[in-house]
Design brief:
Blueprint (H helix, E strand, L loop, with lengths): L2 E6 L8 H16 L4 E6 L9 H11 L7 H17 L3 E7 L7 H10 L6 E4 L3 E4 L7 E7 L16 H12 L4 E6 L7 H17 L2
Parallel strand pairs: 1-2, 1-3, 3-6, 6-7
Antiparallel strand pairs: 4-5
């Protein structure tokens, strides 16, 4: 039995297109994988720890030492966050575009879980080593935007959304990635775009 973990980076509830598409995806997944577990993680729910002290702990670990006191507490909270993320072998991210990139809560998630020995190793000669590679994990990402679109010029923005997040996924070793995109733009046909995104979400979910 597999576990699908949906991580949501949108705080807009019923008004969110990324969450709407995620519901289409998870419903199709449950229909096709009735024995699997599905968990939803709203990254805005306050469960992500602050990482100011954790950043100090990270450098303590990099130096080959053990975090203590407040650093140890921060490191333990970060570890629990990573373990929740790592508990699933199927990952679904709903990612709206904010100011050409991702919502800051998703960057917070990335910064909390991206730790030495958990997500990566580093060697002075060979560089980074991805710790999540070769473990059979699969990823689907829903990218949405309202203004930017792939066929528009730079006056409508730039895609630092999927370039940043896709690069992070591959850096961790997660390379089995499927994308669902919803970019209707200000003058596009939103109904057609919704139908196309929903159809792709269902197709991926059925065999995910």
């Amino acid at each position: 039995m597999s576990k699908l973990l949906h991580l949501s980076a949108s705080p807009r509830d019923e008004a969110s297109e990324s969450l709407r598409i995620a519901r289409v995806f998870t419903e199709a997944y449950q229909d096709s994988h009735p024995g699997d577990e599905v968990e939803h993680w709203d990254l805005w729910d306050g469960s992500l720890p602050d990482f100011a002290v954790g950043a100090k702990a990270k450098m303590t670990v990099f130096g080959g030492n053990e975090p203590r006191g407040a650093e140890a507490d921060a490191w333990a909270k970060a570890r629990r966050t990573f373990e929740r993320f790592d508990s699933a072998d199927r990952l679904l991210f709903s990612v709206p575009m904010w100011n050409a990139s991702v919502p800051y809560v998703l960057k917070q998630f990335v910064d909390v879980v991206s730790q030495p020995g958990w997500i990566f190793t580093v060697d002075p000669v060979t560089g980074y080593g991805p710790r999540l590679a070769g473990r059979g994990k699969r990823v689907a990402v829903i990218y949405t935007s309202a203004v930017w679109g792939p066929r528009l010029g730079p006056e409508f923005g730039t895609d630092h959304q999927s370039t940043f997040f896709g690069d992070w996924l591959r850096w961790t070793g997660l390379t089995d990635i499927q994308e669902v995109r919803f970019h209707p733009t200000l003058t596009g046909d939103w109904d057609d775009a919704r139908c196309a995104a929903d159809a792709r979400a269902r197709d991926i979910a059925k065999v995910f």
